[in-house]
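User: Structure with iron/sulfur cluster, tokens only please.
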Amino acid sequence: MNPTGNVTARLPFPTAAARELADLQLRANLHKATRTIRGKRERVVAEVPDWEALRVAGAAIKDDALARLPELLERFDAAATAAGAQVHWARDAAEAGRVVTELVLRTGTDHVVKIKSMATQEIGLNETLAAAGIEAVETDLAELIVQLADDTPSHILVPAIHYNRAQIREIFARRMPGVDLATLTDDPPALAEAARRHLRRRFLSAQVAISGANFAVAQTGTLVVVESEGNGRMCLTLPQTMISVVGVEKIIPTFSDLAVFLQLLPRSSTGERMNPYTSMWTGVTPGDGPQQLHIVLLDNGRADTLADPVGRQALRCIRCSACLNVCPVYERVGGHAYGSVYPGPIGAILSPQLTGQAAGANRTLPFASTLCGACFDACPVRIDIPEVLVHLRQKGVDEARGRPSVERTAMRAMSWAMRDRRRYRAALRTARRAAAPLRLVAGRRGTVRRLPWPLSGWTASRDAPVPPRQSFRDWWLTREDGGDRR
Ligand code: SF4
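Assistant:
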């Protein structure tokens, strides 16, 4: 397995995006789902008069935690250990996978139940466990759909967002053992009932549960999971052993900091005022809940990300997915185009930083954006995603320096022409003359659909406007008063 896990894109983003764009059903499903979640989020966020102050507070708490990360991690370790947990440290995905597999094997079981967890997706835990003969059953409904379909998640919060109800019924009918086809319709309650029956048997027989965590409180050694279906709570009560894989950036300093995030997260993610199920656990309690608690603290590229003064803000992310739901690029291409478990705007800045930009095709991910800024406006912890995107683009270009690129050559030529007024006007005149044949092709539409190389890269995904016959300056000089020549 790749040491960093499932965060490396295999295909360049433009190639993968073109493939996904051809799937019209996918685009229709995504459009409907993201529009619905966007609307809900906007309504509930507008109800909070101090929303902006909450965002500022959330960002400040996270920045403070990141600035004191080693100290807070040690505090967390000491507090969790004192409460009866065993804390393990993992440098990368491969190490975390080994630690968890060994812990499960030690219990003698061959199957585990899982709460939806981005960290375990990130490290490819299900595949690692399967290689050791251990079956991992996803208990989050959307994760279960993806697992039954032998697919991969395409959204941080709604991993099966790319399927509609009819497709989900079809997956259940084909892949869910013992499903009652007579009562299985594509109504959400019927689908939820089928999943409930399927999972109930797994919950009752599982000795081991595996989770992630939304927050890890340094002060008390507490882990927090925020979810909507109650499956996380089932995982936290029935099994005897609990293993939690937690990215080190999930640390927050104090218990009272949760007051900020438990307001920001539900409204930003599912558009709910309050979260339906918030589970918190601190160590073990004799006779109540899991009697063995293991916490695997995962680095996997986070220390390197933290070292970048601009890029480190990506570690503030609380995985609410608001940035995905407002992103015009994500809405059209979906999560699989990003090739990482972290799709959308946050994935475009997080994945290349976790793996290093040279890994696979991750260098192309920061270009998967129009830089419209909608993601920054939606982000509850004020991550300036456009700023990081531009920063990573610049870094990517800098790393390639030494090899002349078409883009850099063109930019240099433009810079030379624009430094002198006469040169600039001459260049514009030449461009207008050169564009004369294009005007014929463009006709009344005023745009050209396909330009020859090297400009073909531009028209591969958008039309090119034809330069006007007359520049603004020339038009100004033809005004009745002769324009302002000063
Ligand atoms: S970057 Fe911000 S908006 Fe996007 S998932 Fe993370 S916290 Fe949510």
